[in-house]
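User: Modeling request: complex.
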Amino acid sequence: MKPAARMTREARDTLFLLAVIGWTLLPHAGHVPVWCSGLAAAILGWRAWLAVGNRPLPGRWVLVALLLAAGGLTFWSERTLLGKEAGVTLIVVLMTLKTLELRARRDALVVFFLGFFVVLTNFLYSQSLLVAASMLLSVWGLLAALVLAHMPVGRPPLAAAGTLAARAALLGAPVMVVLFLLFPRFGPLWGVPEDAAGRTGLSGTMRLGGVASVANDETIALRVRFDGAPPPPEAMYFRGPVLGRFDGVDWTRLPDVPAGARVQVLGTPRHYEMTLEPSRLAMLPLLELTPATAGPQLDGWSLRLRQDLQWQLDRPLSDRIRLQASAWTDYRHGPRRTTPELDDWRRLPPGYNPRTLAWAQALQARPELAGADARTLAAALLRHVADGGYGYTLEPGAYGRDAIDEFWLDRKLGFCEHFAAAFVVAMRAMGVPARIVTGYQGTDPAPVDGWWIVRQSNAHAWAEYWQPGVGWQRADPTAAVAPERVQRGRSLPPTPGLVAGTIGAVNPALAARLREAWETINNRWNQAVLNYSRQRQFDLLRALGVESPDWEDLARALIVLAALASATGAGWALWDRHRQDPWQRLQARVQRALAARGVEVGPQHAPRARAERVRAALGAAGEPLAVELEALDRLRYGEGLERPARRWWPGFAKALRQVGRP
Amino acid sequence: MIAAPRAAFERWLERRLPAADSWALTQRSVYILPTRAGLAFAATLLAMLLASVNYQLNLGYVLTFLLAGAGVVSMHQTHGTLRGLVLHLKPPRPGHAGEAATVEIVLTNPGRRTRHGIALRWRQRVGSGGFAWCDVAAGAQSTVQLAFVPPQRGWHALPTVVAETVFPLGLFRAWTVWRPASRVLAWPRPETPTPPLPAAAAKPGEPRAAATEQAGDEFDGVRHYRRGDSLRHIVWKKVAQTGELISRDARGEGRRELWLDWADTGGDVERRLARLAAWVLACERADRPWGLRLPGHELAPGRGDERRRAALDLLATWPG
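Assistant: Request completed. Predicted assembly structure:
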């Protein structure tokens, strides 16, 4: 006998449910603490062992003890029981513990509903196509298990339950599509906690070492498409927060001076379209330089170009948005002459990095630089970076209190933010206004569907210094040490995964093509599903003929559709009420036909009984009718007629005509 | 205080139900409401929707709406599991009062899809009667048995039947209430232990005394084995029961008649009927001809299943 045949139905159903739960929890293995993954795996394994052996479930006290232990461990590892991380940890533990309590149907239902919620929590971490597909499988499995739980008779095959579950889901798909398209999208209802995004990216502050985690993050930050030729890779600077205040540890932004950005654009603009992933930052990393006159227009958002040329939003970007703007790669900005505000950009924290300050002053004191302007000093610094034995690495290790000293003079290993920070400190030490600009630089090598992809790993930090008579000038010290970082967009590809790495080693071209195909699919997915926002909803309504739609129009459209659906349902119900079994319909028809010829039969009479009545009432004249009726009787009860045979009625009608009406 | 209006409501509800042995489930007769699990599901969906809104998860919306769609569809599926089904009551076989009579209900599925997880039960919980579950395959029939314990003899209307289902997702419960028209006849509960049979009487025209002097403590028509009795006269059935050799009394057989007579019983009507019923059953077990005599009624001596049923039916419907 096969093991599957030996297993009781209950054991089989339980194992199936455990497998579905395991599959659902699997993506969380990377997010929850190690103890939690281990505990969940152990409990699921234990439960499976109990199910296979048909052993009794553990008592309530074991569960309470496990639950308390899990709560304690959660608090120990997360320092709280609230928030996303702790919540996910707890829900994983609860879900697995609940399987040890699967006694009554009510317990099973709790598992199902928890399961659906766990599926949702997976989306907090990733909404990629892969996660979506695997979670679709999970939902299917959970629904199938739910259906199975409501098939109490016999031993229904899993495939049958799966088919029924898929049927319910597929038939419900129109409801899903309509709700998805029209359900009004609101902003977050309450403050999204800091960790809500679950992603790394730019932030308003910088500390040496912070960008390292970004550099390895392959998630997409934005996509950009150009009308006409794209700018060269080395001009692909997307400007984010500008950091001017340095307290020795952190770089932060200076308050905005409401003087308006002094910008002068040169040359021709490039028109571009951009979709931005939610960054949870109140800013737009637009292409340098997008001036206020050619900036994007966004419904429902208030935009402002700060004086440091950073595009400021009135609230954090929590939605995927699409925008259009124009940029000039050639521009001038900032005051031409010294102003008091520039002093803010020269300030250095006292007592930090003394050796670098001394080094910079010694550089400035060199004879060939005597009385040099900012541009010459910057060039000298960049030359020093190029020749000074500096190395570019994403893993420079941790730096101590005087991080710039240590980097600039001792270890000389770092990446963009080290170079930018050291450059700015040295410039300021020489009395030149300077600042760090963070943002993204470069894109993936090739466009996907015409869209250039900018990833979190493209996050970059560069520097700007102020030159009298010109204004702010960009200087990218990273380019001096690792020019390919800027020219190609990415110098250091991230450590590839096992599969990608293997393919890449065997056939780099194939790997690139596969990656490209995957990016294409992923982009379609993002554009169609993940980018579907309030803006796109309004676009849809506009396409349907609603002028200047708002969320009330969405609600109205939903209500109208719901009313239509209800009316259809009611109509169908009305029609269905009069619908009869075909056999009964035929019986009634025969009854009416006979009544017209003076033979009264009841609805309960079988054709054979009717034949007898026909003979009794009509005698020999009714014989053909009686014969036909007896034939019907044989058809119905002899051959298992499911529907009244169309071929039967004509003969009967002929017999009726023979009899004629009285 | 609550019970009285509730009982009145129940009575009203049952009165307005037409009694029929066939019950076709249509839009009119199938009711549906969300179950507690359905309400919990709605709460789960709401929580998921809130999480999707707050964390701006488009996939969260997709998931929530997918489940909502499946829930709406499951409502139709639950209703459709019953709608169109035809319940038919097989003529119930009579049984003794206090004993479970099996009531057979045939479910006919004229549709093209198997109907799963249909539960039948009595509307009012009678005794330990629980659910009887069944699936009905497409275009096929299933039979479900419900146990009904008539409390006393006589005709009993069957309690109303509830057919219900929560298939497929358990979020909605669809049900119908059906009042079967057929009544079930309950024979009197036979007296236990079986009382000794009355003495057999001589056939009319023969001296009655001759019979009674023979009777003694023996059963009529049989006696202990005596040496010389033919082996053919030994009642092997009795031998197996008692372990003693019992012979058929050649004189008793054919010459004497056993009358189960109302006059030979005592006590109130029910006690008398119970005793008569027990006697009828005892005679049938012993395979002996018997006659039944009730005031104004007489069943001529004889034996067999049909006579037994006739007698028990008579006893069941005896006025009093």
